[in-house]
Amino acid sequence: MKKRYLFISTLIAAICIFSTCKKKESDDPQPLASTKIDKSCNDINLFGVAKDREFGKLAFDYFTNPDSSKLVIMDSVQYSKAYAYLNGIKNEILDKNNIDNEKEFEWRLRIIKDDSTLNAFCTPGGYIFIYTGIIKYLDKEDDFAGVLGHEMGHAALRHSTQSMTKQYGTGIFLQALGYDKSVLVKAIRQLGSLSYSRCHETQADEYSVSLLSNTKYKCNGAASFFEKLLKSGSARPPEFLSTHPDPGNRVTNINIRADSLKCLNRPEFSGSGWLQFKSDLNLN
Fold first, then answer.
1. Residue 15 domain-assigned?
2. Which of 18, 36, 78, 263 is the most buried (most CB within 10 A)?
3. How confident is the model over 68-93, as pLDDT tens digits?
């Protein structure tokens, strides 16, 4: 009887060691990407996460409808290879991180045909729009991953609805509850040109570094765009930078963040897909 009990105990112990009884380090949930982001300068947000989803879908439908918006959206079927490539970068970031509001948001990407605009923007709910101008301007996949991580940071940290609350006050909150929709509609249409505070931009930069630190990409990729601007000596930088932190300061802050996460000197990702991606969009 004792031998039988000893055999069963030994068998159970062995099963525990080689199966789920032993928890692997890789199974431990990662902390949210925002854990070490300074949130002391955040604005009040009157809206819940459900409203981010609602507003984001309204904005997405508005911007992708040629009858309502002047933006030229590149068709996701006609340019399926390009969109598959973009979604691969997005999924690398999503899969390697525990992103705030990841499950609640859509994380949909659309490309805007406008080679003269160096910009990208994100609506509430994770709907991200990228201009061909910034795609053409960037040299490497790492650089774009940095920009994409920045926009994902704006969405994850819910900067849009914070900014909407600050810009329109309690009025827009009442509109969203079902009263006169005029202010709400105006706010939705202006999401493509919504100005974030310097605090929000700094947070999104830091968030991008945190996201990329867990991926195959150089984690300070977001700095490359600003470094190129500085090297070009452009007397007239993109309009959206007029309300943003100084590009030189952003490069410094991004690199400090990368150094703190011990990923500053990571080699660049040497994937060959970036040039083909540009070619698929006729940007070479």
1. no
2. 263
3. 899 999 999 999 999 999 999 999 99
Residues 6+ away with beta carbon under 8 Å from 58 = 188
What total number of domains does the chain contain?
Answer: 1
Which residue segment(s) compose the domain that 47 sits in?
Answer: 39-280
Task: Rounding to the nearest 10 degrees, give the CA dihedral for residues 241, 203, 226, 265.
Answer: 180
When mean pLDDT is compared over 99-113, 187-201, 256-270, the highest value belongs to 99-113
Q: Which one-letter amino acid corresponds to residue 87?
A: N
Give residue-wise pLDDT tens across range 12-52: 444 343 334 333 334 445 678 887 788 877 888 888 999 99
Measured distance CA(47)–CA(144) in Å, rounded: 30
Q: What is the DSSP string of 43-65?
A: PP----HHHHHHHHHHHHHHHT-
Residue 10 lies in a domain: no
Residue holding tokens 């990923």?
263
Name the pTM for this structure: 0.83
85 assigned to some structural domain: yes
Residues 37, 96: Cα–Cα separation, whole Å: 18
